């Protein structure tokens, strides 16, 4: 079944989970332990990222194939155009189809090394995610997602331009979008409003990072591409040297964010797991997102 079918079938708010491809055997064992701990909670779908600059693509293909064959989860593979010729992209998409993966998050990717360095397309490759959406569609009966940016993509001139290109790639054949990390519910809701005002009613799923450590906070700031609000730093930075207190307050912050999103009718929350299950299980439980886990006060 596809991500769209799962989202449409939701009768209560759901959640999805994201992993990265393992680099070695110990990593792989950690990944699979986490997948098995989250699988019984019945997430809407699970996704595996594509290595930066197109690296470790075999890891993505191998892991997503195993998810498709050995689990009850709905798998979605991330795929980036960077560094690949169209022939290579066709081949990877063919691999996904062959192992039963019907959902692809179509991305352009960042240049390897410096993400904000000059974008250089592969001489026989693609320039924008929009073209990858078309290619994936052309090659099979896939459900396709794209990336959306609450603060605008760092390379976009302004929010209007950013919204125009988001809507273009949705119209090119994407079924839904997943939003980059953000700090406040309003930042996400404004993105949703911009897309709707520009004529798109495709679902946009918010990306959520469980803020368990100072490192996850730094990563969130980096990925969001925005300046964090002072209230957030005031709540978490004083706890940087107390891991238990940081984790507790970090998860409180994320719970409050998720509650606000759910109150605004967001149907599905997408959690970055960093290949661990514990924090996501805790949030799913607190938010009552899975009948398999009793809500915790
Ligand atoms: P595009 O949609 O192509 O946009 C790139 C830039 O070009 C934007 O500034 C846009 O406004 C502009 N643009 C778009 N179309 C046009 C056009 N037709 N003409 C002119 N300008 C245009 N990276 C990885 O390496 N692996 C992953 O697994 C991964 N997963 C991600 C998941 C999510 C949910 C998100 C939000 C990002 C992810 N990324 C991943 C990062 C992503 O690859 C980068 O943010 C990349 O810089 C942008 O990708 P895009 O698909 O949004 O690009």
Automatic annotation (TrEMBL):
Superkingdom in the source lineage: Bacteria
GO molecular function, one example?
A: methylenetetrahydrofolate reductase [NAD(P)H] activity
Q: Where are the transmembrane segments?
A: none
What is the E.C. number?
1.5.1.54
What keywords are assigned to this protein? Amino-acid biosynthesis, FAD, Flavoprotein, Methionine biosynthesis, NAD, Oxidoreductase
The Swiss-Prot or TrEMBL record lists the needed cofactor(s) as: FAD
Pathway annotation from the record: Amino-acid biosynthesis; L-methionine biosynthesis via de novo pathway; One-carbon metabolism; tetrahydrofolate interconversion
What this protein catalyses is: (6S)-5-methyl-5,6,7,8-tetrahydrofolate + NAD(+) = (6R)-5,10-methylene-5,6,7,8-tetrahydrofolate + NADH + H(+)
In terms of InterPro entries, this protein maps to: FAD-linked_oxidoreductase-like, Mehydrof_redctse-like, MTHF_reductase_bac
Q: Which family does it belong to?
A: Belongs to the methylenetetrahydrofolate reductase family.
| Protein name, UniProt field | Methylenetetrahydrofolate reductase
Tell me what organism the protein belongs to. Amycolatopsis acididurans
Give the gene symbol. metF
């Amino acid at each position: 079944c596809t991500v769209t079918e799962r989202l449409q079938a939701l009768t209560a708010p759901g959640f999805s989970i994201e992993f990265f491809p393992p680099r070695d055997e110990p990593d792989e064992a950690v990944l699979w332990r986490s997948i098995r701990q989250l699988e019984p909670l019945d997430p809407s779908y699970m996704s595996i990222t594509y290595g930066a600059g197109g690296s470790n693509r075999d890891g993505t293909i191998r892991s997503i194939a195993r998810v498709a064959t050995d689990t009850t989860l709905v798998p979605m593979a991330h795929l980036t155009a960077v560094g690949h010729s169209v022939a290579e992209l066709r081949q990877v998409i063919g691999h996904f189809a062959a192992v039963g993966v019907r959902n692809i998050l179509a991305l352009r990717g960042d240049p390897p090394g410096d993400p904000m360095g000059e974008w250089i397309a592969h001489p026989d490759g693609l320039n924008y995610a929009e073209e990858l959406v078309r290619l994936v569609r052309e090659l099979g009966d896939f459900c396709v997602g794209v990336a959306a940016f609450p603060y605008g993509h760092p390379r976009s001139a302004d929010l209007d331009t950013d919204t125009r290109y988001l809507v273009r790639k949705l119209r090119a054949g994407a079924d839904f979008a997943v939003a980059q990390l953000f700090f406040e519910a309003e930042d996400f809701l404004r993105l949703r409003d911009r897309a709707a005002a520009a004529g798109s009613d495709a679902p946009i799923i918010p990306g959520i990072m469980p803020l368990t450590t100072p490192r996850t906070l730094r990563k969130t700031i980096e990925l969001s591409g925005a300046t964090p609000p002072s209230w957030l730093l005031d709540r978490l930075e004083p706890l940087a040297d107390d891991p238990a207190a940081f984790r507790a307050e970090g998860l409180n912050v994320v719970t409050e964010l998720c509650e606000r999103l759910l109150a605004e009718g967001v149907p599905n929350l997408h959690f970055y797991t960093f290949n661990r299950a514990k924090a996501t299980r805790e949030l799913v439980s607190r938010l009552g997102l899975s009948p398999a886990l009793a809500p915790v006060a």
